[in-house]
Amino acid sequence: MNVFSLGALLGCLLFAAPQESEIDWLTRGRALLDQGKAAEAQLVFEEARELAVSDSEPRIWVVRSWLAQGRVNDSLDAIDELAAEGISGAPIHYLYGMSWFLAAEAKLKSGGAGTSLRRNILDAIHHLQLATEEHHDRYRDALRPLAKMAWMNQRLDLAAPAADLASGYYPADARIAHLQGRIAHEQFTIAIAEPDGAERASSLAEKSTGAYRRTTVLIGVPVDAIGKVLLAETWVQLGRLYFTLGDERAVEALANAVSSKPDHLDYRELSTVIAPDLFIQSVELGLAKFEERARHQPESGGAYWWLGYTAFRSNQLERAERAFVAALASKSEAVESAWYYLGRLRYVQRNFSGAISALRSSWERNPAALFSSLDIDKQFNIAMLDSLAGWCVRQRRTIDATIFYELSAEFTQSAEAWQKLGLFLISEGERLYAEHGPEFPLARRSHLTALAAFQRALEIEPRSPLYLLSTARHLHRTLKIEPDRALELYGKARLEAGRLLADSKLPVERSSELRAIRSEARRSIDELLQDQPR
Predict the structure, then answer these.
(1) What is the C-alpha separation between 93 and 138, in angstroms, rounded?
(2) 308 in Cβ contact with 323 (< 8 Å)
(3) Which of 23, 139, 142, 438 is deepest in the core (most CB within 10 A)?
(4) Percent share of the chain, pLDDT over 70
(5) Taking Cα atoms as reference points, which of 405, 523, 414 lies closest to residue 472?
């Protein structure tokens, strides 16, 4: 074979060698994008740029792979360059739309809101709609973003067909099935309120429940947090729809939502739209399922708290107690107020010892959380604390009585409560002296603590004749210390009582009390002056 013939043969072979078509590299690259392998897809698209006659189309997909890797700013710069080179129409709308969609998603994840987020959503809808109007097959991965942004903007007329098209291309994508369910759910809510919307509402309800159930099947048993959140959200929406329809399967669906991810649900909102008995039944069943997999986990604490709170408000006190105990067993920091409710429901059931134990735990662990709970029903709670303190006195539970008198005083910041604590501590000190003798140190300590309580009362009401007299008398007669200060306080008590008695409109009982204080202050001054060395 001569050289010419060999060259001709090689030329024919080279000419006949298969070249990768646009369909080949685009199919391979898009498959990688769909699998979440954006970096590998980028390599395919960059390789296509080297082989293609024109690299404008592969460049579009290189930018798309950048977007999938989170390089939004780089992508926007590259899109501007492509547009400046004269590339327009669906490809540019596709890239801009995906960019604004991802920007909106990032803002949503970080809790963003306001004008900036709304602008991103509107821009995404505008560009994605233009990109998919005639090229929804080529830019089919833009359909779910379009449906989601349109749904968020209440453009259900645009969201529904986009989601349905997306489902046709990606039948195994649980996110799309869930979105179909949410869109149809909202359309159902609108239709059912319309005078002639019953038939349409029925069809939409069937579509929504079908999409939700398909979502749960597609997710299966999720292994990551994203899957658990989507599953929980799907079950809770299905449960809410069933509840609206009066379908008994609502309990099962809501229980599955709790079981999937108990710390994801908005129990406050759910408890306002779902009947208490159904709420209790669903949460209880869901937590039982969850506990089969993982007992006493922090993520179940909030669900147990809301179960307990709803049962408490429904007067199902035994059920509420079990739930609050389980909430505390979860070790979740978010359920500190369970101690208070546990104490309160035990108090209502006259389990005073149990109530004291729970409220003491709350006081010792987190006083601020306890005060916040007590403040919700202040009048009742002040009476409860006072009642428990009195019960402790009768039961000779001195430490508990002291704690509850002090708790009441700290919570109310009332001079009367501090005065009451001081009087209790004096009587307790006297009892200890009687039982253990005049040198017993705990008795002396009780009396000194009483002085601190009287002083707190005076800080709140420094001109009160009663609190001036109580403090002076305690210094003079009980502690037998600081006679000069006692003398000063007696004098102030006498003057303040006289000042108040000048008011002719005082009730008779109040006048009698003030006269008694003034008389005792005067006698005590005389006695104190006689006792002092001349």
Answers:
(1) 13
(2) yes
(3) 142
(4) 94
(5) 523
